[in-house]
């Protein structure tokens, strides 16, 4: 995995990269390999950490702080932003909005100051959420700047994720919400995977995250099915097994 020492990120800029030489090569060449981890490097100075190094490590993420650069490493599987969607940000210096920069630097400063008193699992989720915030905000700004069709695709995916719990979510609903035709919506996703199939995939991804979360261990399969927009626990179990190769209970126990 690359280190902080081999990259120079100017203040106010973000660089996103994949961990591992194979994943980095695939990202640059347009290959299909998906890395295990994504690294966000933000050029900023963190209050209270001037002149010092700090590191926090968890199973799904890690935070490394240097005087002028912060690196947040997160497991790709835990992100709701797919690796392929991050292509506009990969391996280049992307300007970060001043407001987002201030939120990120402030959040990191608070985490470092209070880490000793915080629950590790909760702190890990907090850092994953921070990574989502930075990636989504920077990606939206970059896509709106360079590629409006891709920005519309991003809007459609955001709408799908926000309404996954609604079992009536459909291509027609998404198209109506974005004020575009159904045909135009399918053109945005002209990559071999239909809109309905994509919604199903997002539901399965959310279910996997909920089943793997120790904080949700007491929740029943039926509750998780409802949260992910399945009409019944039986339908959820059949679909989950078809896609993942295991039942929800087997996946949770593993």
General description of the model:
The protein is an alpha+beta fold and 254 residues long. It folds into 2 domains: 4-146, no CATH class; 149-253, Arc Repressor Mutant, subunit A (Orthogonal Bundle), CATH 1.10.10.60. It contains 10 helices and 6 strands. The protein has helices spanning 21-29, 98-114, 120-146, 148-162, 171-177, 182-188, 195-212, 221-227, 233-244, 248-253; strands at 13-18, 37-43, 54-57, 61-65, 69-75, 94-95. Strands 3-4-5-2-1-6 form a 6-stranded antiparallel beta sheet. Helix 2 packs antiparallel against helix 3 (120-146) and helix 5 packs across helix 6 (182-188). The radius of gyration is 19 Å and the shape is globular.
Which descriptors apply to this entry?
alpha+beta, 10 helices, 254 residues, Arc Repressor Mutant, subunit A
Strand order of the largest sheet: 3-4-5-2-1-6
**Could you list the spans in which at least 5 consecutive residues all have pLDDT below 50?**
none
The number of domains: 2
Run of helices and strands: EHEEEEEHHHHHHHHH
| Number of discrete helical segments | 10
* Shape category: globular
The structure class reads alpha+beta
Query: Would you count the extended β strands for me?
Result: 6
Radius of gyration: 19 Å
């Amino acid at each position: 995995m690359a280190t902080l020492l081999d990259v120079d990120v100017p203040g106010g800029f973000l660089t996103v990269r994949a961990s591992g030489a194979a994943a980095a090569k695939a990202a640059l060449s347009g290959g299909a390999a998906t890395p295990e981890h994504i690294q966000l490097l933000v050029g900023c100075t963190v209050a209270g950490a001037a002149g010092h190094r700090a590191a926090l490590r968890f199973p799904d993420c890690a935070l490394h702080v240097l005087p002028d650069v912060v690196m947040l490493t997160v497991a790709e599987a835990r992100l709701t932003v797919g690796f392929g969607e991050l292509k506009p940000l990969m391996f280049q210096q992307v300007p970060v909005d001043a407001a987002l920069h201030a939120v990120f630097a402030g959040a990191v400063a608070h985490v470092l100051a209070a880490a000793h008193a915080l629950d590790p699992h909760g702190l890990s989720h907090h850092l994953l959420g921070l990574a989502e915030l930075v990636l989504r905000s920077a990606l939206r700004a970059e896509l709106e700047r360079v590629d409006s069709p891709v920005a519309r695709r991003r809007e459609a995916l955001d709408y799908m994720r926000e309404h996954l719990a609604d079992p009536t979510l459909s291509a027609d609903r998404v198209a109506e919400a974005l004020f575009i035709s159904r045909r135009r919506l399918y053109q945005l996703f002209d990559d071999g995977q239909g809109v309905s199939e994509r919604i199903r995939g997002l539901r399965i991804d959310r279910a996997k995250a909920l089943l793997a979360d120790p904080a949700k261990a007491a929740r029943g399969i039926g509750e998780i099915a409802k949260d992910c927009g399945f009409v019944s626990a039986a339908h959820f179990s059949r679909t989950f097994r078809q896609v993942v190769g295991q039942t929800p209970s087997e996946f949770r126990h593993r």
